[in-house]
Structure formats: structure tokens, C-alpha cells
Amino acid sequence: MYKVLPKTDLPKLIGRWMEQATVYAPVRQGDFTKFEPLSDPAQADLYYAANTRYPPKSLFLPQSEVMFRVKDGEFESTEDEVSSRVILGIHSCDTRALQLLDGVFLTGDYQDPYWAKKREQTTLVVLGCADPCETCFCTSVGSGPFDKRGADVMLIDIGDEYVADVRNEKGQALFGHLPDASRKQIDKSRQVQAAAAAGMKKPFETEGIKDKLYSLFDSDFWPKIQQSCLGCGACTFLCPTCYCFDIVDEAQRNERVRNWDTCMFRIYSQEASGHNPRPTNTERVRQRIMHKYAYFVELYDEIGCTGCGRCVRYCPVDLDIRQIIRSAQAWEES
Amino acid sequence: MNQLTFAIRQEAARILEENVVDVVIGFEVGTLPLKAQPAFITRKEEAEKLVYNGFCQNNLAAYLTRRPKEERIGIICRGCESRAVRALVIEHQHDRDKLYLIGVPCTGIIDWRKIEREVGENTLQAVEEGDEVIVTTRDGEHRFQRVDVLHDSCKRCLHPNPVGADIVLGDPLPEGDPERAWAPVLEFEALPPEERYAYFVQEAERCIRCYACREACPMCYCTECFVDHTTPRWAESMITPSGTQAWHIIRAFHQTGRCVSCGACERACPMDIKMTYLVDKLSYDMVQQYGFEVGASDEEQPPFAAFTLDDRNRFVR
Amino acid sequence: MHNPYKPIPMRIARTVVETDDQSLKSFELVFEREADREKFFAKYRPGQFCQLSIFGKGEAPFGVASAAWEGDFVRFTINKIGVFTRAIHKMKSGDAISMRGPLGNGFPIEDWKGSNILIIGGGYAFTTLFALAQHLLAPEIRSQYNDLTVIYGAREPGLFLYKEEIETWYKRDDINLYQAIDRPVEGWSHFVGYVPTVTKEIAPSAENTVSFVCGPPVMIKFTLPVLDELGFPPERIYTSLEKRMKCGIGKCGRCNVGHKYICKDGPVFTFAELRELPADL
């Protein structure tokens, strides 16, 4: 179902949502935007070009999250402490990432109640990217700037209006009262979508990447490409699909918390005995890349990367994942 | 190609061919127009990949403690890198005999954030031409005065010339003006405490504990950083104010008399945190109170690291 | 929704110092709530592990070292090595502790009814194998399997675990027990030599036999070729893996070997399965 919303009416609409839910949108902070709960509809900055610096996965898997409050040895869990939320202006890559992470958190014998509850309580009003960045590569990893998977509503900017592609009941609750979009507006929105995807470069080929990476497991490829990597966590922390976490007791706070962790850190896999299965940066870089482009594919038949480009833009040494995959595909054992 | 790039390629090819070194650490063209990539050249034919320009934003000395111990390394050294090498040698982290320093007087690193703040996030091409930086984006060409888009640490650089290099390529540059260099420290210090604290809180608040600052720093080479120590834990693990603030304060203290003021930490930060002012103040105190400057001499220990057995403080014995 | 991260309250019922050097202690934990006990034993099979937690010291995974028929307790044998283990070593019977589990796949022993069972263990890694042997020795279970052979090596006699229980095995005729120490010691009447050598000497038949092998990496490394020579295909050699773990349920990402997670897909794997995975251990 297609609805239409004049851009000038957006603040009013946000205000309406704010009566019943916490509304998150990109809010400018200095030189970048970050998803924050709005206190005023005017704070929402939907014209952010590159993705928000800090990935919105944090709204579902906060960087530090209290799992339990501990009183007299009793563990009181916190997963129910979330109420209805709307996330406005999240891009397709970040939405796709949430969907990929549903595979991790919501499938198998155990479901993660913290993730599940937040997903359940959230409506995603996705904003398609009419103008993807130079560092974006969503179309190379099986997605696109207007990928609607995971969206409750997809907004398409057609100039003075948004065409809202309402995908389900959750979306209907927010947009159902708006007038239907005209044939002409819908056509315009299709043109915008096609043009955006067509304008994107394809930096690498993913055909056969899983098997290629498996074949390179013990190769000189990894020692060579890891040389410039500093072993910091910038790429993984900004990544919308990296989800590894550590569970830590903060005794003074009487809390058991989980914090984002990263396979790029030496202590990530360090065992109490002193043994470390990934003792050098080579194994750690290999793990990061293989998790996304081999193991994830093996498990979920999807690449565990959505092409958001954050790791490309903010790597301190310009170790570009597009270049790594391209080199891997081209690598021949000497 | 600029002259320095040409000279660096020649020298790199020579020392590889004459087996003076096993590897040359320099820069090559990056995938992003405003950033060069660190490069590790092991064969003389590959020396053609090397480039040198204002987009070379990393402190290459950070790689020295990551390389195999037995390796003989040639390294492109600007002022800050050469001072880091000295400091590392003094702290017994590297054997000077295994290093070959290709010195390059440095006119400063271009801050890609300053440029993208003006032109947006879709740079297609960037070149330096004399005192100008010409940036092409989807909207067309943008020209900047180099001096306007230098990284802040480079603007207050005191020693752009390499020290103790085996060869220096390019002409020496005038030294920086101490008065200008220390002005930001004094200005900040003059602010009322609540303003200073507010600034600190605001910067620390954005920290995501990725430790890019630590990893980009040539002097942060500890095998186990205090913040990674878990048996027992010495710092709160969370990204709460107490956790992140402790991280930045303690890291600054550990840099006292050791920081080479290269600004690599700030350039590495994915969250644009500007925190070098803390260490700059400590460096200023080192100069004022101990007359010590990192890299000024190739044997003097940092005051807080130096001790003798007849020290009047008992803790040494 | 069930919260799989939430520990249940337990109490230490008994502690036993296992080894002469005091480094290994067993802890028998009992359930504070009947419902938890029922849930645990409905799911538990040997080879599974639990996350024990002492708030403030964190959580750590330990293999279960007891069989269900032994009683209403769960036994863990713990080496004093890190923050958590040092803390638990100081605890006494009556103390409260928290637990999650059972976790992981465990030994798929039901798949091998009617077979001969060969258990080979070395040192501290004998814990879950002990649980397996004990499980098999229960009267109603023992009759479902053929020969049961246990080869168990330790550096010296004082380092064997579960000495009292194992002593009773010698008196039974439904278990072939071979204990070995590395170097001769006065008064030692059993085998002397490393586990691979002793295995070769005993030469258990591979016919209709499945083997379970746990021990230090070096023991595994040299035992595998012996089993191969004896005719054991890798599909019939099981082992249990260890890696740093946090969540224990395949979410936190840290214990992967290739696309498998040791906590969720393991810790028990056959060597045939491991051969298919990248060498990331």
C-alpha cells in the first residue's frame, strides 16, 4: 500500500507518534548524526548523506546493556524494560543488518530475550537512499539502497513528498490514516529507486567468495593483508552486523552487563590458561572477514555484511574491506 | 608525481636491492582519495608503489613494535615518526641498528575531516598543488589553502624535521614556533574549571572504547594495556562516563614525557574525539619543569621513567 | 520468553580435594528449587557443560563430572587457574552459587547402543569422560552396550581424579580399566607410559567400537594415529573441545571454529567433523 506524505507534514506526524512511543531518528551531533530519542520532531535530520556514524544496531544491542540487576544473589533480568518505539530514517543497510542479526539472536534452540523484546516493540520507518555514498556497496552484497526487507514502512523521497510504501500492520498503524499516493507519485518513486541503484559501483564479485576464502585459510594472503591493520575495534564497533559481546560483572554497580566485544582484540579469545587460539593479528583479521563472507554464508546463506561502508570510511589506516574481498578473489597462491 | 615520492622510491629500491633492510614501511595510494595507506615493501620492484603526500596520515612508527624482532626495517620518518623511533629505542622497544630511517621534512598532514566538513562525504579525487589542496566531489571542484586544512597537531608542530635519520630527502624546514605551539594549552588552562570539565565530559562521552587511539599510537606498545587487565579488572568495562573517562585520563598519564605530539590518536578516532590537549598539557609541563622534550636527545630517559639505584625515593630499591 | 542467560540458584553440598597437589577440587552442587532440578535432569547427558557463576567474579564453563543416577547433585571438577576458579576453590559446602545449564550437545551415547565403548582420557580432561563411564555403569544402561574399556593416564598416581570411585571399578567385571602413569613409581601396580603407547599396547579392537578421547592436545595428537592404526575411522572417534566462552548458547560469537560454535554445536565433535573445519583452535 502506498501512501503520500508532504515533507512539511512530517514533524506533525512525528509528534503524533511521540504521543504513544519513543521516536528515534538521526540527530546531528557536531560533524555526524546519531540515532537519538527525539524530544522535539525538529531534531530529526533525515538528510544525512552518509550513514549515521554510530550504527543503529545499538538500539537493539546497546554497546553496554544491563542484563541483570543482582540483589542478594538473585538475578533480576531487565529485558522487559522496553516500551513501544519507532525508528525513523534508518537506511536499508542498517535495517538489513537487523534482519541478519535476527538469524543469530532469534533462531536455534535459544532466543535472546533482550533482542527479541526490542525488535517486537519497534516499528522501522526506513528511509531509502536516493543518493548512496562513494563508500557504499550495498548492491554488491545482495542488497540495495531501497531494499525493503525488514522495513515496516519504506519512505521514498520524491522531492516535496515522501511516498510511503507501507509493508505491514505495524506500518499501517503509523501511516494508515494518510492519503493514498497517486499513480504518478508511485511511478516517480520507482524512478528514484532505480536510479539510485543504477548509479552504484560494484567494487567486487561475491560469486564463490565463501569457497575462495576457505581455500585461502592457511594462505599467505592473510599475513600480507593484515600488515597495515592496527588491531583496533573501529571497524567492528561501527559495523551494523558485528554483534559479538562480552558478559561482565560490574560488582560495584550490582549489575551483570554485556558489552560489545570484538574479534579484533587480542584478549577476545585469550583463555584463562594463557592459550590463545588467535594469537596474532593475522588470525584475527581472518576471523573478521571470514565470519562475514564465509561462516555467515555457510550458516544463513547470506553475506554478513550489508555494504554500509562505515568500516571503509573510518578505518584509521584505510584498510578497505572492498579491497580485501577484491584481493581475495584475485589471489593466486604463488 | 612529486619530487619526494620519486626520491623515496629510489632510496627504498636501493636499500632493498643492496640488502640493507628486509622491508620498507611507507605509504601507497589508498582507496579513499583523502587517505594514503601504509605500505610494506619487500621487493625493489614494488618500491614504485610508494607515494608521499599530505594524505599520509598515520604515524608509521606504530608498526615497529608489531614487526618480527629479527627484521631489518627501512621506514619513512617525518619529524614525529623520527622522534617516536628515538623514544622507542630509548625504551628498549627497538634496536636502532636494525632500522634505516629515510627522513622527510614534513609540511603537515591534511585533515580529511576538515575537508569533508566543507565538501560533504563524496570525494572523488584530491591532489595537492603547492600550497593548495584541490578536491573534486560529485558537485565539482573545491580549492583549499593547505594551511587551513592541516591537522591541528600539525599546525602546532615544533619539529617538522626528522632527527637521527640515516638519510634526509628534501630540504629542511624552519622549526615551529614554541609560543604558537603551546598557545592552545595555555588558553585551555585559562578557562574556568567547569568549562574545562564540560569539554572533557563532552569528548569522552562519544568514546566507543575501540582503542583506535591506542593502536595508532607509536608509544602505546604495552602487551597488556591496563584497560585490558581482567585479573582483576582495573577499569570499568562499560561505556559509562566513569569507564570512558578513566580510560582517557589514565592513557594520558601513561604518555607523560613519552608523547611525540603527532596527533595520530586523534586522526585514528572514528568518533572525532579531540583529547590530545590532555597530553599536550603534560608535555608542556615536561618542558617547563624538567626541560625535557621527547626525541630531543637519543639517550635521555623520560623523567618519569628514569631512575637510579641511589634515588632518594625508596621504591626503586 | 525464557531468559537463557539467567542463572539458577544452587548450593555447594560437598567439596572433594581430588589431587595431591590440591590444584583440582570437585564441587557437588544441589538445587535450591525442585523445578530446576527436574528441568536439569530431563535434559542432561554426559559431555554437556554448565556455566557456573559467582557474582562479581563472572561466569565460567565447566563440564559436568557426574552421572544422573549418582544422586540429586551435579559435580564439577575445577582446576585453580584464573579469577573464577580461585574464587570457587575458596568456597565451602553450604555456600550459594549460580548455574546455567546443561549446555552443549554432550556425547551422543544413545546412538551407539549395542557397541563396544572405548574411553581414553588424560589428566584433568577426564571429567566428562568420568561422567560418561559412570552413566554407562548404571545397571539399566550397562546392559544396552557391549564391552566398556577405559584407558586413563595421569602424570603420577596422586593426580588421578575420583580415586575412590575408580577403585570400585577394579572390582567390577563389566569394565576393563587401564590406568597409566608417565614414569614408574614405587607401589604402582598398573601401567607405566604415555596414553598413546599404552593404548597401542592394549590394542582395543575397533570392531563395533566407538571411542571417546579427551586429554591435553599432545595426548590427542599422538593417540589419533594409534586409533587410526587400530582401525578406528574418524567418524567413530569423539572428542570434546574447549575455547573461551561467554554466553554458552551460540550468541556472543567468541568460541567459533569456522562456522561452528563450540558451546552450541559442541563441545563434542567427531574427528571426521573437525577435519571439515578450519584449523582455528
Walkthrough of the structure:
The complex is a heterotrimer of chains A (334), B (317) and C (281). Chain A is α/β, with parallel strands linked by helices and 334 residues long. Chain A is 32% helix and 20% strand. The N and C termini of chain A lie far apart (56 Å). Chain B starts with a helix and ends in a 27-residue tail after the last helix. With 281 residues, chain C is α/β, with parallel strands linked by helices. Chain C is globular, with a radius of gyration of 18 Å. Chain C contains nine helices and 15 strands. Classes of the chains: A alpha/beta (334), B alpha/beta (317), C alpha/beta (281). Chains in contact: A-B, A-C. Chains A and C meet through β4, β5, α3, β10 and α9 of A and β4 and α2 of C.
**Please, what is the average pLDDT of chain A?**
94
The shape of chain A is: globular
Unreliable sequence segments of chain B: none
Order of helices and strands of chain B: HEEEEHEHEEEHEHHHHHH
Low-confidence stretches of chain A: none
Q: Cα-atom Rg of chain B, whole angstroms?
A: 20 Å
What's the arrangement of secondary structure elements?
The complex is a heterotrimer of chains A (334), B (317) and C (281).
Chain A: E1 2-6, H1 10-18, E2 22-29, E3 32-37, E4 64-71, E5 74-77, E6 85-90, H2 92-106, H3 113-120, E7 122-127, E8 153-157, E9 161-166, H4 169-175, H5 183-198, H6 209-215, H7 221-225, H8 234-238, E10 245-250, E11 255-260, H9 281-300, H10 310-314, H11 321-330
Parallel strand pairs in A: 2-6, 6-7, 7-8
Antiparallel strand pairs in A: 1-9, 2-3, 4-5, 4-11, 8-9, 10-11
Chain B: H1 3-17, E1 23-29, E2 36-41, E3 50-51, E4 73-77, H2 79-90, E5 99-103, H3 112-119, E6 123-129, E7 132-137, E8 140-145, H4 152-155, E9 167-168, H5 178-189, H6 193-205, H7 212-216, H8 241-254, H9 264-268, H10 276-290
Chain C: E1 8-17, E2 24-31, H1 34-43, E3 49-54, E4 58-63, E5 73-79, H2 83-89, E6 96-103, E7 116-122, H3 127-137, H4 139-142, E8 148-154, H5 163-169, E9 176-181, E10 191-192, H6 195-202, E11 209-214, H7 217-230, E12 237-240, E13 256-257, E14 260-261, H8 262-265, E15 268-270, H9 271-275
Parallel strand pairs in C: 7-8, 7-11, 8-9, 9-10, 11-12
Antiparallel strand pairs in C: 1-2, 1-6, 2-5, 3-4, 3-6, 12-15, 13-14
